[in-house]
Amino acid sequence: MMKPNIWKNPYFLTGFLYITLLILASFLYSILWGDEVRRLYFISENGLPVEAAPISPKWAFPFGTDPLGLDMLGKIVIGAKYTLITAFIIAFLRVAVSLPIGFVLGIYLGKYRKSVNGMIDSFHYLPLSILAYFLLKPVLWEPYNGFPTTLTERFIIEIVVLTILIVPVISSLLGNEIALIYKEEFIFSARVLGANRLRIIVKHILPSLKDKLVIMFGQQVMQTLIIFIHLGLLQLFVGGTDVDYSFAKDPPQSMTNEWSGLIGDSFRYLQGAPWVPLTPILFFASAMFAVALMMEGYVRVTSGHSYYYKKFKEKYEGAAKGETFDVSQSDFERVKHRDKSLSG
Hints:
Elements: H1 10-33, E1 42-45, E2 48-52, H2 72-108, H3 113-120, H4 128-140, H5 151-164, H6 167-182, H7 185-192, H8 197-233, E3 241-242, E4 253-254, H9 259-264, H10 275-303, H11 307-320, H12 331-343
Antiparallel strand pairs: 1-2, 3-4
Helix pairs in contact: 1-2, 1-10, 2-5, 2-6, 2-8, 2-10, 3-6, 4-5, 4-8, 6-12, 7-8, 8-10
């Protein structure tokens, strides 16, 4: 029987190519033109200006310009690598750091797991974006005398903070899932045959978790992008917020043209020049849709069913049975809910 090839799935391939092309185009743009962006101050006809910046979308400027006359598409392309690569790194670290903790909770601390879950449950009610804002503002908001840290250092600090904030929740969910797998009959058979815990983890539990870890990674990428949007609206941008302290000061601006900064420093133009804030919002949405396509394609190849159809089906079947979970819950949260209902 031939092993299914994920690269032949149109959903996965479409999402993967879109994300890859954005990142490659961003690096290629920076190599060829640096961070220089085309500028158009006004459009004239018969020698008379008929439209000044911000200029609405035209053929030559498909997403228009910002109030300074800078091409919105150019800014989007420059910022794509900072936005997307940072989100992927944070999502990967969240899963990678939480996985060993989940093994400890699910296997080695099984009798304490309920107590630990009780303490970690409080993290579900913390407003993650607001907490991240207060933790990151001393690092990302430029002080009067300039940043005491480099751009790389600020990226690293932000990645660490946004990773650590969600690790307790993911670790708890993974611990619950691992505990369920550890009670399966094939695990019991391996233990009877003399396999130690390390071998069981490597040979049996990790392969069983592989598909769910991929889905969790995709979920974390989308959640990270949403947090970027929230922080952008609060004018706290990835890599740092450039603050003007002069008398006739300009509004806070992104230092890297990453997408959350393009939202935060232009949201006030939503009525007068809606293309300015809506362009980065559109690309945020399209990137999340691309990640969703990749998740859908991966699940279709590995399991043969539709990921999102299954989620909606579980939602409505659960509602018919009087269950309370909703479609926004992750697979692991639904497992946790199911365990509680069965134990009750």
